Amino acid sequence: MKKIFLSILGLTACLATLQAQETVYPAKAQKGLVFLKNATIHTGAGQIIERGTIGFNNGKIIAVGANVPIPADDVRVFDVQGQHIYPGLIVTDSNLGLTEVESVRATNDYSEVGDINPSVRSIISYNTDSKIINTLRTNGILIAQIVPEGGLLTGSSSVVQLDAWNWEDAAYKTDNGIHFYMPRLMPRSNPFGAEARGPGSDAVKAAMERIESVKSFLREAKAYNDGGKKSETNLKYASVKGLFDRSQKLFVHCDLMKEMIIAADMGQEFGFDVVIVGGTDSWMITDVLKKYGIPVILSQPHSLPVMQDDDVDQPYKTPALLQKAGILFSISNEGFWQQRNLPFNAGTAGAYGLSKEEALSAITLNAAKILGISDKTGSLEVGKDANIVVSTGDILDMKSSVITRAYIQGRELDLTDKHKQLFERYKHKYELQ
Length: 433
Description:
The chain is an alpha/beta fold. Helix content is 30%, strand content 22%. It has 13 helices and 16 strands. Strands 1, 2, 3, 4, 5, 14, 15 and 16 form an eight-stranded mixed sheet that branches. Mean pLDDT is 91; it is low at 11-21 and 192-197.
C-alpha cells in the first residue's frame, strides 16, 4: 500500500508540474514569401555572408546571398540588422521525448527488457508534448535524433523536427539506424578495491562473449534476409535488413580504442555503414577511422577523460584533432534536457582548436550528413528546408546568444518555454524591472 501511495504521489506531482507549464501550439504551415535581411548569415558549410538576405516560401529556402532582390508585392520582410542567421541546430544521440521526469518511472519510455531488441522503434514512443522540447528550441535546436536505450541491440532511432502535434507529424527521417551499445572492455573496480565482476580478465571475457552474441545474431539475420520466401516472419531478423542493404546505419556506442576497432571490424565483416557514438579515444585511431570512412558522434564533451593519464582537457581538444585528420564528426550531449547546452559545447570546441564555423558545422551540416538528412537540412542553401535560427549574437556563446526568431520548414515558432515563464513569474513576485 505504501508503494502504491508513493507512486500515485509521484505521478500527481509530475502531472501538476506538467500542467503548470506553458501552452505552446505547433505553428501552421508557411504561406507566402518571407525575407530576412541585413543579417550576418552563417551557412553552416563554412561560409559567412555579411549584410545578407535569406528568403523562403512554402517551407523551402529560395534565396541566400548578399544582393538578393526582394519582391515588392505579397511578401513579408523582416529587418534583422546586426543579428546573425544560422541553420537550425541538430541534436544527435538523445532520448528527448522518450522521458520527461527521470525519477518518475511512468514518464520513461526509452528502454526494453532484454539484450537483443532491434525491432523496437523509438519514433512511436516519441512524445511531442514534452515540455523539454521548448527549452531546446529557445537555444536554436530544431532537429533531434531520438535513440532507444537498454540492452545491446536496442532498436532503431529516428530523426524528428521539434514542432509537431504527434510523432507522425514530427518524423523527419524514420528508422535511420540501429543502435548497438558495446559492453565496456575494461575491468571495473568497486569502491573497496575488489573487482566488481571478479578478476579483470573475466570481466573483459564476459564482455567479449556478449559482443560475440550480437555478431552471431547478425550472421543469422543475414542468412534470414538473404533467403527466399519465409513461412514465418521473424521481426528481429527482419528489422535489421536495412543494415545489410545500407539503407540504415549501425550506431555503435563505445569509447575505448579497442572497442572502436571491433566496431570497424564489424563494419568490414558485414558491410555495414558504421557510426561511432561516444568516441572518447577516437583521436588515437584517426587513421583507422579515416581508412574505413567511419564518422564519430562525440558525446559529453564537458566531461573528464576516460583514462587517468589523459590530459584533463582532452575532451575539449578531440574535435579539433578529428577535424585535422579529416574525420566527419558531430557533437552531442547525451540525455534530453542537457541538449539545450549543445551550442555551448560546440563553442568550447571552438576555443580549443576549431574555428567558429567548423564548430557550427559540427552541430549542423556534419550532424545532418551523419544522420542522412543533409539533402534537406544542415545548411542554408537554396532548395533545402527553411530551418532557420536568428540570434542577437554568436549562437555558440552563452553570454551573447539570444534567439529572437526560429523557423522549422518555414513555420515561425513560438519561443515560449518553462524557463522564461518562471523568470517572468518571479520577476513579477519580487517587483523586478
